[in-house]
């Protein structure tokens, strides 16, 4: 077993949180030795909590390490954390470590200067993260439940709006209902439920033609409004991800047709996702379905992207986008993978339509973890 080293904060680093089960906002050290024993070196501020919470064999205090380092080298009266890291690894007899791509370059250089070989992991640092344990699936399901609360709050606000004579949605006070209004309601609901929203999308009309446009300004009636909600649950660290497209008023026939094609595209994907399936083949089947439904993919007359030009899905867990992917680059699906299924259609004259659920891959199919209705006209 190779030695593995991480130095980061575990709020940002999913790999570090996965290894330790400890949320800490400041950088700390994780080390797994050749025998498989795991160590954390952390500040006195976090030491008691780390001893109580961290899933590691040994917890070390930077302060104790600093005292030992000064005894070892009395001339270094104020050793830095880099000095302490080098001292710790030397004391462990380390000759080689494997680190992730995001490992601090300066620290890697210092390790090499003292004779420790640094190997950079080419693929995922913990490949086993892609296969979700039952407890992780439970955490993701809870994240999706909270996501649904936010989605319901946003849709309720749109449903309650009146349709102005000018074709824009109005609040009860007569003012325009805006993307910002709906996003604020969604985000406030998520925060109250214990989740942190990230760039919630409420994109109406033409704005929906750009898949990652967050949306701004008044929302139109009789046109599609994309709501994409993806919060991280603060207690567990796991993400939810859900998209719905709704229309307040009467949807034009082309919007109805696009929405139904996308809904059926999800069913095409659901029917093909199983352990051993090719992600690229799943994606191609969805693309072919949308094309046959009359919605081809390619440049529009003004040179913009049109049709279905993103992947069918991505892994979901401690990161909003993680392995595996369901798209043009082929990856084989395995039982325990948790992936989104989110086909979409985008045209400048139509706007956008996207529907997104989350499924867990099983030996003979997939199980939908998302329990939220799909309705276009509200």
TL;DR of this structure?
By secondary structure, the chain is an alpha+beta fold. Helices cover 33% and strands 21% of the residues.
Q: In words, what does this structure look like?
A:
The protein has helices at residues 14-20, 44-53, 62-72, 81-91, 105-113, 134-160, 179-192, 253-272, 279-292; strands at 4-8, 28-32, 38-42, 58-61, 96-99, 117-120, 162-163, 169-170, 195-196, 201-204, 225-229, 232-233, 242-246, 313-315, 322-326, 338-341, 344-347, 351-354, 357-362, 365-368. With 378 residues, the chain is an alpha+beta fold. The chain folds into 2 domains: 4-125, Creatine Amidinohydrolase, Chain A, domain 1; 130-368, Creatinase/methionine aminopeptidase superfamily (Creatine Amidinohydrolase, Alpha-Beta Complex), CATH 3.90.230. It has a 4-stranded mixed sheet. Strands 10-11-13 form a 3-stranded antiparallel sheet, with helices on one face. A 3-stranded antiparallel sheet has the order 16-19-20, with helices on one face. A hairpin with a 5-residue loop joins β7 and β8 (169-170). It is elongated, with a radius of gyration of 25 Å. The model has no long low-confidence stretch (mean pLDDT 96).
